[in-house]
């Protein structure tokens, strides 16, 4: 039986092969590009939320320090020297604190000023989380679009009689 008798035109085989290539390309784009970008976006959002948590914790500690009356006793604490090495320390003066402002810049500020800095950083980081969440939603929409496109392509009937 020849191809003409079977109702298959020579271009149909090429069309089917081209459809398989398109499906493979779309699957690669979906799995290697879109899902990878989504994973990176989720990791970036988690890092920003961790920073928000740290600033919130700092602010809470500063509020507790400023709400108590002048203490004549020393406060004992541990200081992280890096690589999880800690050293015991004693804080005798609570009138100023040293705060990292970013870019390896440190400043000696009052606890009230430090709380304002924490508030500003928390507000800035919350805006970053909103922008990252919008980017995440766009990526999820693109993923759904590609998945639906693949479903349509793969459900087509390839019989050309």
Determine the strand fraction and express it as a percent band. 15-25%
Backbone CA Rg? 30 Å
Class derived from helix and strand content:
alpha+beta
Please give the order of strands in the largest beta sheet.
1-2
List the uncertain runs: 157-161
Mean pLDDT over all positions: 83
Q: Give, in order, the helices and strands.
A: HHEEEEH
**Shape designation:** elongated
Distance between the termini: 15 Å
Roughly how much helix do the residues carry, as a percent range? 55-70%
| Record field, number of beta strands | 4
Oligomer: single chain
Count up the helices. 3
The largest pleated sheet is described as:
2 strands, antiparallel
Structural description of this entry:
The chain is of the alpha+beta class. The chain has helices at 3-6, 10-67, 111-155, and strands at 75-82, 85-91, 97-102, 105-109. Helices cover 66% and strands 16% of the residues. The strands form 2 sheets. It has a two-stranded antiparallel sheet with strand order 1-2. A two-stranded antiparallel sheet has the order 3-4. Helix 2 runs antiparallel to helix 3.
């Amino acid at each position: 039986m020849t191809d003409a008798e079977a109702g298959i035109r020579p271009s149909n085989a090429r069309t089917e092969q081209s459809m398989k290539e398109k499906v493979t390309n779309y699957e690669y784009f979906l799995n290697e590009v879109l899902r990878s970008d989504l994973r990176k976006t989720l990791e970036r959002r988690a890092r920003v939320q961790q920073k928000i948590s740290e600033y919130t914790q700092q602010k809470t500690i500063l509020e507790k320090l400023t709400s108590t009356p002048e203490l004549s006793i020393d406060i004992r604490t541990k200081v992280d020297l890096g690589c999880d090495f800690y050293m015991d320390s004693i804080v005798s003066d609570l009138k100023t604190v040293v705060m990292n402002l970013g870019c390896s810049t440190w400043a000696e500020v009052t606890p009230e000023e430090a709380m304002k800095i924490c508030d500003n950083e928390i507000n800035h980081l919350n805006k970053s989380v909103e922008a990252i969440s919008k980017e995440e939603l766009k990526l999820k929409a693109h993923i759904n679009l590609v998945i639906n496109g693949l479903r349509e392509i793969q459900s087509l009937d390839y019989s050309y009689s």
